[in-house]
Amino acid sequence: MIRIAFYSAFDSWQDWAERLSPLLPAIEFVDLMSDDAREADIALVWTPPAGRLAGLPNLRGIILQGQGVDHMMADPTTPQNIPLVRLVDPEMAAALSHWAILAALDFWRDGPYYRQQQAQKIWAPKPQRPAQGGVVGVMGVGAIGSVIATRFAALGFQVKGWTRSPRQLASVDVYAGLDRLDEFLQDVQILVSVLPLTPQTRGIMNADLFSKLAPGACVINGGRGPQIVEQDLLAALASGQLGAAVLDVFETEPLPTTHAFWSHDKIAVWPHVAAQTNPQSAAEQVAAAITAIMAGQPPANQVDWQRGY
Description:
alpha/beta; Rossmann fold; 9 helices; about 30% helix; about 20% strand
């Protein structure tokens, strides 16, 4: 019997049990916060309470219900002597690409302007931006970013990608390393970030970065909230250097009701829903990770504590 300690504020363990049971030998789900969790072999969790995992003496692996790992690394009690596995679900990559394209095309075709005109019953067409050749920059062209970048290219955009390590990507000009970041940013009209949160990416979207984009650019952040310096973003929008921002992640979540982003006419706020975990599509990956961990083998998508993801 494999005992799985479960924790999530959004999903139920029943959905996961239904999908995982046909893929694994006998399994039992228990609540991470219950006494039964002390006998758990695996933790399947999302944002568990700090310190809770450290109190499970039989734990052999931690599997996250999403791709972000920064909340786990911020907890100094998270066990580092067992595998920590992040979810890299193709369904999430597809969903996030849909969201990024929706946000970008809404900006590119002046959706906010026309919604304002409708509200005021004004008929006032604007000149259309080019249907081909607009410059999109994608920061982080890994499992998710590569899908986003290639789909933008298929729509006729000129696409640039920025990543930590060199890689090849069809129809995308890839720039690797901090020393090529400025070159990557040049002429970018729509900037999409799906970067992981690391010490190097915290605060990376700041006044200096915004100043190097094309005037009036749109910033779309589906990575992590702390990567944007919020006051710098507001200043760049006020000056016109940025024309819009579409944000799905924030420094503080839920976004406080008093936050300036809520009422800003150039900012679209999404409540961290750009790519939600689907147990149906993710079950095979989770089952494979559990099988590997129980066999004493390294699972796929194991987090590297040195790299930060």
